[in-house]
Amino acid sequence: MRVKKITELNRISIDEFKDAEKTRLVVVLDNVRSLNNIGSVFRTSDAFLIEAVCLCGITACPPNAEIHKTALGAENSVDWIYCGDTEDAVRALKNKGFTICAIEQAERSIMLDELVLDKTEKYAVVLGNEVKGVRQEVVDLCDCCIEIPQYGTKHSLNVSVAAGVVIWEFFKQLR
């Protein structure tokens, strides 16, 4: 096997990305503090043609050199909006017909490996702060909680890793 050169990957341009049919998913970041995590979420969202990223609360916005370090330009391809209050963002998405899913360990969570999505629906996933997770006030507004099964000694994943796992599952089911 030979590793492909970057010129052989046939990636689309930013303009082509903007025009491409998107995965019916919005990623909401609830007070994510790490600029590297934000950049990683943009890069993963670009990889899987995510509709948009909603940056809330203390979550930083592009343009930002630290976000760019991990996003590598995906902050320019993926649509994004800023909302000062995550609850307002969730309410606005609900009003637009989105099913809202917090990615959180909660009572009656749906395990990610048991999740069944409807391809005709629009979804938003809310990922929380690196220390506090998704705030209870936000969880209360969500239609469900999705939990990533974990079998080791740690109780959580890094937010950008969790985003990658969840975005991949939504992409597989919705595309």
From TrEMBL:
Gene Ontology molecular function terms on file: methyltransferase activity
Keywords, ordered alphabetically: Methyltransferase, Transferase
GO BP terms in the entry: methylation
Annotated ranges, domain tRNA/rRNA methyltransferase SpoU type: 25-167
InterPro entries: Alpha/beta_knot_MTases (IPR029028), rRNA_MeTrfase_TrmH (IPR004441), SpoU_MeTrfase (IPR001537), tRNA_m1G_MTases_N (IPR029026)
PANTHER family for the chain: 23S RRNA (GUANOSINE-2'-O-)-METHYLTRANSFERASE RLMB
Name of the protein this chain belongs to: RNA methyltransferase
